[in-house]
Structures are given as structure tokens and as C-alpha cells.
Amino acid sequence: MTIPSVEIACDESGFSGRNLLDRASPVMTHAGVDLSVPEAAEVVSVLASRLGRRTEYTASQLLRPDRRPALEWFLTALRGRAHVHVIDKPGFVAARVVELFTEEPSFGAGTRLGSDHSDAVAALRDRTGFLEAFVDLARTKRVRRIDRDAIDRFLAAMPAGVPALRGVTPARVEEVVARLIDEDPAFPPPLEPLVPALAETLLFWSAGVRSVDVVHDEQSALTRGRVTRLGAFLADAVAPAPPPLRSFVKILRG
């Protein structure tokens, strides 16, 4: 039996690398559109007639008050053909603390398939000093040994009275950091919201009845290994429904 599929073109906005706590950019979005090349060309052509010819059309151009008719036309044209997943970046960091140090690693972390950490997020998302200490601790790329000072700063900044943090012990923190330094593939990248964002996009477009072919803007966070492991996790999680991810192609901006 042939599994039905759909091709979705994806991109993100608001991604600030690992500067996840930048107050000027508190959210990130990951969007996907279900348009054929001719349909997309027609949308761009109409925008060009309304906004002037450009190599790229940005939100700042469409959100200007004098461009509201063009914005309304654009949203109507994409109704039912586009989906935007929004990530609250401080909330994402707060949830990652709990997921990393109190659970087994899973590519479902940060998605609807993972645990609900909304209470912990509410308690922690505004604890900027604590979240900054966590981000410093979780930056392990090109690190070759455990930074015990970073662990001490993280533990010292950990707020008391948050039930979700009761299982966060010095031994557990050290164990997790060591596994991150060793690049344990079981761990999804702790500071990369694009990975769970892609998962949510796949779950939306697959809808339990089809697989998705993704064409994605070039993003270093979405390595082949991570995308493969995410796809395998999602396939197991939704079985016997079709695997959400069928193929993944990255394109470079010209």
C-alpha cells in the first residue's frame, strides 16, 4: 500500500543561535507551507505587484500600516495552506532544565509527545539568572572536561520550593553534563529549539494519516543525525500511523 505524503517548505524566524534569553527576541517561530512551486510563484507575483519587486519579503514590510490590504490578502491566500509553530524561548529553556536533569533523554522532549512541564515553566521562565546559569552549563560544544564552577553556579542559582526540581541533584547534573560533553546521541541538543519545533511541524502536517517530505532552509542545528533520530522517534511514537517524516532536504539561500 502506498503511504500518502505531502511536501512542505519550512523556515524559521527569531532564531538567535544559543542566545535564547535575548529579551529583544523572546519567541521563535517555525513555519511550513503546503504550496506547489507555481502556487508559490503566484503568491510572490501578487506581493510584488502590491509591495514592489524585492528579492525577499519580510514581516516588517507586511506589518506596516499602509500594507494592511496586502497582509490581509496574503493571509487569505495561505488559509489552510500554512502552519506556524511558536516557541517561547525562556519557557523552552525552563522546560529543558527539568527534562535534562529529571528524565531519561528523549527526542519527544519539548513536544506534545513529551511530559507536561507547564507548572515548572510558569515557576522558572522569569528566573533569568538561573536560566542563564543553565545555558552556560549546557554549552558543551568543543568542551573536553566538566566545568565544575559552572555546575556550582547552576546549583547555587537553583530556586527552592519548585517541586519539579527536587530530583535535580549534583550527581545527576554531573552525569548529564558528562554525557553532553561525550556527545551522547540519545540526548537531543539541549539548546536547539529548532529540533522540537520541526517535530511539531511534522506532527501537524502528517496528522496521523500521511508522511511529510520537508524542504528546509539551511540550519546548522538540523544535522543529518539529529533529523534521522527525530524521524525514528516520531515513527515509533505514532505507529501504526504512517511515519511523520519521509524525507528531509536542506537548501542553501542564494
Helix-strand blueprint:
Elements: E1 5-13, E2 27-33, H1 37-51, H2 59-62, H3 68-77, E3 82-88, H4 89-102, H5 118-124, H6 128-138, H7 148-157, H8 170-181, H9 194-206, E4 211-217, H10 224-238, E5 245-251
Parallel strand pairs: 1-4, 4-5
Antiparallel strand pairs: 1-2, 2-3
Helix pairs in contact: 4-5, 4-6, 6-7
Number of structurally distinct domains: 1
Helix content: 40-55%
Output mean pLDDT.
92
Distance between the termini: 39 Å
Low-confidence stretches: none
Count the E strands: 5
Main sheet: which strands, in order across? 3-2-1-4-5
Gyration radius (Cα, Å) is: 20 Å
Q: In percent terms, what proportion of residues is strand?
A: 5-15%
- Secondary-structure element order, N to C: EEHHHEHHHHHHEHE
Task: Give the CA-based shape.
Answer: globular
Class by alpha and beta content = alpha/beta
| Largest sheet features | 5 strands, mixed
What does this structure look like?
With 254 residues, the chain is of the alpha/beta class. It has one domain (1-34, 80-254). The chain is 44% helix and 15% strand. It is built from 10 helices and 5 strands, in the order ββαααβααααααβαβ. The protein has helices at residues 37-51, 59-62, 68-77, 89-102, 118-124, 128-138, 148-157, 170-181, 194-206, 224-238, and strands spanning 5-13, 27-33, 82-88, 211-217, 245-251. The protein has a 5-stranded mixed β-sheet with strand order 3-2-1-4-5. Strand 4 (211-217), helix 10 and strand 5 form a beta-alpha-beta unit. The longest helix is centred in the first third of the chain and has 15 residues, at 37-51. The protein is globular and about 60 Å long. The chain starts with a strand and ends with a strand.
